[in-house]
Design goal:
It is a single chain. By secondary structure, this protein is α/β, with parallel strands linked by helices. The chain folds into three domains: about 160 residues, 2-Layer Sandwich (Beta-Lactamase); about 130 residues, Response regulator (Rossmann fold, 3-Layer(aba) Sandwich); about 170 residues, Hypothetical protein af1432. Helices cover about 50% and strands about 10% of the residues. A six-stranded mixed β-sheet has the order 2-3-1-4-5-6, with helices on both faces. The longest helix is centred in the middle third of the chain and has 45 residues. It binds ligand C2E, succinic acid (SIN) (3 copies) and fe (iii) ion.
Length: about 525
C-alpha cells in the first residue's frame, strides 16, 4: 500500500505542508471534469450551480481528454473530486487515468467518480471491483438531484480524509516536539504550537489560517530580552508579504483581549482565544472560520488552548530556572575568584574565550553560551586548596602540586549537586586532561571528552601564561601562542588550537584580551 503521497513529501520538502497551496484553493472545493464532450461538462457545471459546503463553493477544472487531465493534476494537488468519462482518446482512457492518479501520483484522497455513456464498454461491476473509485454513474441517470447528491457526499468524504490527514500531521508534530518541549528551545515550542493549530484546524474544518502568539514582553528569554513566540500556520503565515496583515491581526487580538476594545479589523467568524497562566493573559490563539462552530468543536478548541497555555507555563519556568542557574554560576565564580584573587578577570575572560572558540567551531550560539558559563567554573575547586599552596610565590614542590591537582575533583564535587551544572562539572573535572592522555586527574585522552573541556584546556593555559601569577610573570602573547602551538597534538586538541590561533590572528579575541 502506497501511503506516502505527494502531499506528504512536499510538506517535508517545504517544511510547511500543503497549506502553502495557492490561497484561492482553500476557499473552494476543486472539481475536475474530464469528458471529451464539452456539452456534458457545461451541463454538469450548470447543474451544480450554487453548491456550497462549509462556506466554500466549487471551482471547476476542465479536461477534454485523459492527457489534459494529467496536466491539470500535476498542477493541482488539492483537487477534491474528479468526474471522469471512460471513453475518450482511447476506449479505456478514463480507467487508465484512474490508475495513473491512484498509483503513479499516489493521490489517495481525491474522490473519483466514473461517468460513462457506454456502460457496455465499461461494465459497472468490473470497474467497481478493479479500480479504486468512489462511484460509478451512467451519464443518462445523472439527473440534477443525483449529481448534486453524489458531488456532495464525495466532497464530504474528501473533507473527512483531509481532516484525518491534518490531524495525523498535527499529532506527529506534537509528538516530535514533545520531548523537545522539556529541553525547550524556541524552535521546538513553535513546532509544538504548529501541531496544535494543525489539529484544531483539521478537526473543526476551519480555514487553514491560524496564529498563536504571546503578547509581547510577558515571557523573558535567557538573555533577558523579551520573547515573542509566534507560530502561524496557513497561507497567511507562510508569505512574507502578509507580515503587515499578521501584525494587524496581532494588534487587534491584543486590543480585544487586554483592553476589551472591539475591533472590526478581523475577518468575520474569526476566533480569539486567550492563553492564561495564573489568570494572567500571556498570549492568544487566533483562528479563522467560515462557518459557525458546533459545541463539540468549541470544547475541542478549549482543550487545545489549555495545552498551549501549559506549554507556555513550562517555558516560563524553564527560563526562570536558566536565569537562576546563571546567577548561581556568577556567585560561585565570584567565590572562587575571591579565594584565588590573583586570577583577576581570568574567569570572565575564560568564559568569553570559550564561547568564541565554540562558536567558531560550529557549536550553536545557545550551546556556546552554555559552554562559556560552564568554563567560568573550571577552577571552582581551588576554594578547597590551602592558601599557602595556592598563593605560594614560587614553584610548587611535587607534594604541593599533588594537593593542587585535587582542585579538579573538588570542583566536580562542588558542582555535582545540581543537574543544571552537569556541563560545568565535566569542565571542572577534565580541564587538565590532555590530548595524549597524560593529564590529570584520570589520564583520559581528551579526544574522548566533551569538546567544551578541550576548549577550556587551551584557553585556560593561554590566559594563565599571559597573566601575572604569584609564581610567574606575564608572558607576551606571541610566547604564549608559541607554547600553545607546541602543545598541539600532545597537550591540546589540534582542531581547537588551530581555531584558537586563527581567531587570535583575525582579531576575534581582541575584545576579550583587554578585559581586565
Ligand atoms: P593556573 O595558574 O591557572 O594555570 C593553569 C595552567 O596553565 C597550568 O596548569 C599550566 O598548564 C599552565 N601554566 C601556567 N603557568 C605556566 C608556566 O609558567 N609554564 C607553563 N608551561 N605552563 C603554565 P597546571 O600546571 O596543572 O596548574 C594548575 C594550577 O596549579 C595553576 O593554575 C596554579 O594555580 C597552580 N600552580 C601550578 N604551578 C604552580 C607554581 O609553580 N606555583 C604556584 N604557586 N602555583 C602553581
Ligand atoms: C490532497 O488532496 O491534499 C492530496 C492529494 C490526494 O491525495 O488526493
Ligand atoms: C555536553 O557534554 O553535553 C556537550 C559537550 C560537547 O558538545 O562535546
Ligand atoms: C565533540 O567532541 O563534541 C565535537 C568534535 C570536535 O569538534 O572535535
Ligand atoms: Fe585548573
Amino acid at each position: 500500500m502506497k501511503i506516502i503521497n505527494r502531499n506528504i513529501k512536499s510538506k517535508d520538502q517545504q517544511g510547511s505542508s500543503n497549506l502553502t497551496a495557492p490561497l484561492a484553493s482553500r476557499y473552494v472545493w476543486k472539481v475536475l471534469l474530464v469528458d471529451d464532450e464539452e456539452d456534458i461538462r457545461t451541463l454538469t457545471k450548470l447543474n451544480l450551480k450554487g453548491f456550497e459546503l462549509d462556506g466554500r463553493e466549487l471551482q471547476f477544472l476542465e479536461a477534454s481528454s485523459a492527457f489534459e487531465a494529467k496536466e491539470i493534476l500535476d498542477k493541482h494537488e488539492d483537487i477534491a473530486l474528479a468526474l471522469i468519462d471512460v471513453v475518450m482518446e482511447t476506449d479505456d482512457a478514463g480507467l487508465q487515468l484512474v490508475e495513473y492518479i491512484r498509483n503513479e501520483l499516489a493521490m489517495k484522497m481525491i474522490r473519483l467518480v466514473i461517468r460513462t455513456g457506454q456502460p457496455g464498454i465499461a461494465p459497472e461491476r468490473f470497474i467497481i471491483d478493479n479500480f479504486d473509485i468512489d462511484d460509478y454513474k451512467d451519464k443518462t441517470e445523472l439527473t440534477i438531484d443525483k449529481l448534486y447528491t453524489t458531488v456532495r457526499s464525495t466532497i464530504k468524504a474528501y473533507r473527512e480524509l483531509k481532516a484525518i490527514d491534518l490531524n495525523r500531521m498535527g499529532l506527529r508534530k506534537i509528538i516530535d516536539a514533545a520531548p523537545e518541549v522539556y529541553r525547550i528551545s524556541k524552535g521546538s515550542l513553535s513546532d509544538f504550537f504548529d501541531g496544535i493549530l494543525t489539529q484544531i484546524i483539521g478537526l473543526c474544518h476551519l480555514n487553514e489560517n491560524a496564529l498563536i502568539s504571546t503578547i509581547d514582553g510577558v515571557v523573558a528569554t535567557v538573555t533577558g530580552e523579551e520573547v515573542k513566540i509566534e507560530s502561524g500556520v496557513g497561507e497567511l503565515f507562510h508569505k512574507k508579504e502578509n507580515r503587515a496583515r499578521i501584525d494587524n491581526i496581532s494588534k487587534s487580538c491584543i486590543d480585544s483581549i487586554l483592553y476589551n476594545k472591539s475591533t472590526d479589523n478581523l475577518r468575520e467568524g474569526s476566533l480569539i482565544l486567550p492563553l492564561t497562566i495564573d489568570n494572567n493573559v500571556v498570549g492568544f490563539i487566533y483562528l479563522e472560520s467560515n462557518h459557525s462552530l458546533s459545541p463539540e468543536d468549541k470544547n475541542l478548541i478549549e482543550v487545545f488552548t489549555n495545552q498551549c497555555a501549559n506549554a507556555l507555563e513550562t517555558l516560563k519556568l524553564h527560563l526562570n530556572l536558566k536565569k537562576s542557574y546563571s546567577q548561581a554560576i556568577d556567585t560561585l565564580a565570584e567565590v572562587a575568584e575571591f579565594k584565588d584573587s590573583t586570577t583577576g578577570k581570568h574567569i570572565n575572560r575564560l568564559g568569553a574565550y570559550t564561547t568564541a572558540v565554540a562558536q567558531s567551531m560550529g557549536v550553536s550560539a545557545e550551546d556556546s553560551q552554555d559552554y562559556g558559563k560552564a568554563a567560568m567554573l573550571h577552577d571552582v575547586g581551588k576554594v578547597g586548596i590551602p592558601d599557602n599552596i595556592l598563593q605560594k610565590p614560587g614553584k610548587l614542590t611535587t607534594a604541593e602540586f599533588e594537593i593542587m591537582k585535587q582542585h579538579s575533583e573538588i570542583g566536580a564535587q562542588i558542582l555535582s549537586h545540581s543537574d543544571s551544572t552537569k556541563l560545568a562539572q565535566r569542565v571542572a573535572l577534565y580541564h587538565h586532561e590532555r590530548w595524549d592522555g597524560k593529564g590529570y586527574p584520570k589520564g583520559i585522552p581528551s579526544g574522548e571528552l566533551p569538546l567544551v573541556t578541550r576548549i577550556v584546556a587551551v584557553v585556560d593555559v593561554f590566559d594563565a601564561l599571559v597573566s601575572k601569577r604569584p609564581y610567574k610573570e606575564a608572558w607576551s602573547h606571541e610566547d604564549a601562542l608559541d607554547a600553545i602551538l607546541s602543545g598541539s597534538g600532545s597537550q591540546f586538541d589540534p582542531n581547537v588550537v588551530e581555531v584558537f590561533i586563527r581567531l587570535y590572528r583575525d582579531g576575534g579575541l581582541d575584545r576579550i584580551l583587554v578585559m581586565n
